[in-house]
Specification:
The complex is a heterodimer.
Chain A (H helix, E strand, L loop, with lengths): L1 H16 L1 H35 L7 H25 L1 H9 L2 H5 L5 H33 L4 H26 L5 H17 L10 H9 L5 H6 L4 H28 L1
Helix pairs in contact in A: 1-6, 2-3, 2-6, 3-6, 3-7, 3-8, 6-7, 6-11, 7-8, 7-11
Chain B lengths: L1 E9 L4 E10 L4 E5 L6 H8 L7 E6 L2 E2 L4 H6 L1 E4 L11 H11 L4 H14 L15 H13 L5 E5 L7 H14 L4 E6 L2 H7 L2 E6 L2 E7 H9 L2 E8 L7 H10 L3 E10 L2 E8 L5 H10 L3 E7 L4 H8 L2 H15 L1
Parallel strand pairs in B: 3-8, 3-9, 6-7, 7-8
Antiparallel strand pairs in B: 1-2, 1-4, 4-5, 9-10, 11-13, 11-14, 12-13
Helix pairs in contact in B: 3-4, 4-5, 11-12
Classes of the chains: A mainly alpha, B alpha/beta.
């Protein structure tokens, strides 16, 4: 446990002494802020139109602002995840520091968990900034907080899975760009897989659609904690980290 | 402290290390010598549990590298060929990180960080970023991280590579001062380094063990018969070399006397004899014959020559080529 903590601190430290963390935090906050601004502007416009027409159409912040925003956040996340994970192992392999970790009395799994948790922590702090936007909704409106919390849980779980995949890909190469590009490709693919269900209902299409990370986020965005979807994300996390341990081990045999 | 038996590392296409066996006693400095690509780094990586051996056994500080790698790792300090530094960390911060990884904590950790900073003369760069350090400092920080947890065994891969002559000397002195407390294996392809720092040599070539012995014994063994160099000049400047050779060969115990090179007016002859002391007889014979004896010295074989002799014909050919070039 102590070793995981040591690695975690070191990784977070290197995110935050370099511009990476600040750049990611700023970009994510800016982009999400823009989405929020749009969603809210649209919400206000509809509200005013309703009033002018004199109809009392039920307006709901959770349904009309929070839910689409959470879905947006999950997509924006796909673009940021490669930038978080690409350096995790690729950099250590390039500079040779991997030899230090591999010859210290630390288990591979502890190194992997430490690094992955640091990546999750960085992503979580990015989400924290988005929460600032929602704080305004609570200040001036009256949304339900439970669906929002579940939405955030979903975002974290989804990112956890993709970050695990990114961590795995980062062990495969010395080149950060390759690691980043490959992770981005995989993230994108896992996102669009769901599209096949639009025109095809065969089993293979259902399997592909099931593998899409976005499909499983829908329930979380609605504010429903569906164990089926939670288990899907947990499985992705587990598999990603499992493959990372295998990859670390084969690194030793090939090297 | 280290026992290696029939250690082998095979890759898909080649065998990097081929059935190597050796022992290292506690407190010794051992030089691991071989040309580039001989398998030095691979062997060291197996000893540090970085690479698993294909076959064979390596026992380091009492534990098998395959069976109990964590126990081995607790007891070794390793400096890879490029010091494993994180450029974005400060020196003291980095050493603390490594110390924690090796299991140090609290006051003990702070004490060790200060101690290694003093020992490796890096106290003045404690708060500098590692990425900004010069090569010499980087190497010493690398050494500092290797000894931070006071390991039983130190494994140093080419610790002086890429340093300037002054830094090389400082690093060698530092390594020598570490012996005794630690058992040290250092690899190098620079021979004088072994002669200067090590007590024991392990020579490998193309993955195979060529020789393992103390530096002193190895020099003696390769020398075999005693060999002496004489620098002689004729009184009037002219000297008949065949006459000299014949005269020297007549001395009891001399098996061979041969002209070697020429330094201006003085000729150098090499005399091989059985073990024993013939130098006095040689000197007397030269003087009595009316020649001037300018110099008389034992032709100790340098490790370089031993190394070339041991690592095979190919190397020997190119070496003799060099020698003959130098003569002309």
């Amino acid at each position: 446990m102590r070793n995981i903590w040591i690695i975690w601190r070191k990784e977070l430290n290197s995110y935050f002494v370099s511009p990476i963390a600040y750049l990611l935090l700023t970009m994510f906050a800016l982009i999400f802020g823009f989405f929020f601004w749009n969603a809210l502007g649209y919400f206000v416009l509809i509200g005013m139109e309703e009033q002018m027409r004199g109809q009392a159409f039920p307006m709901n912040l959770n349904e009309q602002v929070i839910r689409p925003l959470l879905s947006n956040a999950s997509v924006i996340g796909l673009f940021f995840i490669p930038m978080i994970t690409m350096r995790l192992f690729a950099e250590e392999k390039r500079t040779g520091t991997i030899e230090l970790l591999a010859t210290s009395p630390v288990r591979d799994l502890e190194v992997i968990l430490g690094k992955w948790l640091a990546a999750v922590t960085l992503y979580a702090s990015m989400l924290l900034f988005t929460a600032l936007n929602f704080a305004f909704l609570f200040r001036y409106g009256n949304p339900d907080w439970k669906p929002l919390a579940i939405g955030y849980l979903g975002l974290l779980l989804q990112a956890g899975g993709l970050l695990a995949i990114g961590t795995f890909i980062s062990t495969l190469t010395k080149n950060q760009i390759i690691a980043g590009a490959a992770t981005f490709g995989v993230c994108l693919l896992l996102w669009v897989l769901e599209w096949v269900s639009g025109y095809e209902t065969a089993t293979w299409a259902q399997v592909l659609a099931y593998m899409s990370v976005i499909t499983h986020f829908e329930s979380f965005a609605k504010g429903v904690l569906d164990s089926k979807d939670a288990i899907f994300y947990l499985t992705v996390i587990f598999l990603g980290l499992f493959f990372t341990t295998r990859s670390m081990e084969s690194l030793r045999w090939r090297s | 402290m280290i026992t290696v038996k029939e250690l082998t590392k095979r890759y898909a296409r080649n065998t990097a290390v081929d059935h190597i066996s050796f022992d290292v006693q506690k407190g010794q400095i051992v030089g691991f010598l071989g040309p580039n690509g001989a398998g030095k780094t691979t062997t060291m990586r197996m000893l540090t549990c970085f690479l698993p051996p294909t076959s064979g056994v390596a026992i380091v500080a009492g534990f098998d590298v395959l069976e109990q790698p964590l126990e081995v790792k607790k007891r070794i300090g390793y400096l890879p060929e490029t010091p494993p530094l994180y450029p974005e960390m400060e020196t003291a911060e980095y050493l603390a990180f490594v110390g924690k990884l090796k299991g140090l904590k609290g006051a003990d950790l702070a004490k060790q960080v200060d101690y290694v900073c003093d020992r490796c003369a890096i106290a003045d760069v404690k708060t500098k970023l590692l990425g900004k350090l010069s090569k010499g400092y980087r190497q010493r920080v690398g050494l500092a991280q290797a000894i931070i947890h006071n390991p039983d065994v130190l494994i140093l891969d080419e610790p002086t590579a890429g340093l300037d002559p002054k830094q090389i000397n400082e690093t060698r002195d530092l390594i020598k001062s570490l012996a005794g407390d630690h058992t040290i294996i250092l690899s190098t392809h620079i021979l004088p380094e072994v002669e200067q720092t090590c007590e024991q040599v392990i020579i490998i070539n193309k993955g195979k063990l060529v020789a393992t012995d103390s530096v002193h014994n190895l020099q003696n063994r390769a020398r075999g018969a005693e060999s002496v160099l004489l620098e002689i000049a004729g009184r009037n400047g002219d000297l008949d070399r065949t006459v000299v050779e014949q005269r020297l060969a007549q001395i009891a115990g001399v098996s061979r006397a041969q002209f070697k090179t020429n330094h201006g007016h003085r000729d150098v002859f090499e005399v091989e004899s059985q073990k024993g002391f013939v130098r006095g007889d040689l000197a007397r014979a030269v003087v009595e014959a009316g020649w001037n004896l300018n110099e008389l010295k034992p032709a100790a074989m340098s490790l370089e020559e031993i190394f070339l002799q041991l690592t095979g014909e190919e190397a020997q050919a190119s070496a003799s080529e060099l020698v003959s070039k130098g003569a002309h």
